[in-house]
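This is your field. Have a critical look at the following sequence-structure pair:

***
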Amino acid sequence: MNDYPERVFLVAYDEIGLKGKNKHIFIQKMIHNISEITGINNSYIRHSRGRIYILLQDHHNAGAISNVLSEIFGIKWFALADVLPLDFDTLKRKSVERAQQHGTGGKQTFKVEARRGNKDFYLTSPQINNQLGETIRVNSELEVDIHHPEVTFYVEVRKERIFLHTEHHNGPGGLPTGSNGKVLCLISGGIDSPVAAWYMMKRGLAVDYVYFHSPPYTGEKVKEKVRSLTRQLQKWNVEPVRLFIPYFTTVQEEMAEQVSNELWTVVQRRYMHRVANKIAHEHGYQAVVTGDSLGQVASQTMSNLNLIDAASDKIILRPLIGLDKQEIIERARLIGTFDISIQPFEDCCVLFAPKNPSTNTKAYEIEAGEEAMDSDRLIGEALGKMESETVTYELQGI
């Protein structure tokens, strides 16, 4: 049994198994992420043949670890398993104990699902299924139901030990956060941008944030609302996140003086991307993320998106582009950002929204409108007053 304890968490990864020669890079990133977010020393986290094992120590809180694992990208499923010797009698005894516990808890049906990774073990997977299933049936109140069981006895026969568990917990899937680089997300305080950040983290990107503050038009309450959103999202990001807060008041006031009202939406978005690009270049972000959904509002028509893209020399990632509002709201509820986003504190985009925005803006209209604006001065002022802060994850009793 070597140094394995009586119980471990088995962790199955998702897309990582398809990564070929680069697979080990993603696996090491996942082990790092698990260690960072749980606070468990990586000497207690092992990898072998398609599984990651978290070796539980006496001071570890299994319930708290389980809650955290459900929010680590790259994990397909995980389970708290008994660690047993390569001995079928021990497996039968432990399975009967679990069966009796489930029966006392009101369960009535079961099946056995065995995987024999160790081909030297003297029973095949079907033989384990049949013989262990018969032992459980005879020695407990549970009845066999291979199609819709209330309890499944999962058995994994490995090189030096057997793992037994009866509960799978789903992880979020995707790729380990940070395995594909880092990006900067424009976050407004609304519903869409936090969901966009979540989807990018699921694709292996570490995400930091930029929020455009416009005092006195926007107050401290909307700034705190944005901070709350980044705190909620940070647990998915694993590493501490940075929140940049450039001051956008002068840009918007000069825009209101120099640009036709119907063009405001596109012009301010273009300036947001110019400011974000400066931050991205200085701090090494590879792309900018937005919560745009095609056709949802005036700035998100094809012609207007093209004009916004033209103001950015960084790739603009739009993970929500094909989702409708209800789909975005449902995801926001699942990740815990919806109730924060609907707090009634308006951001600068809402306050400077024109009554009749152009949905088919022409390039020459934008060029004429922006010609009177001193871009270098405005961008410099926004960055000169910028605040920057760090959000970290607090461990919950692990």
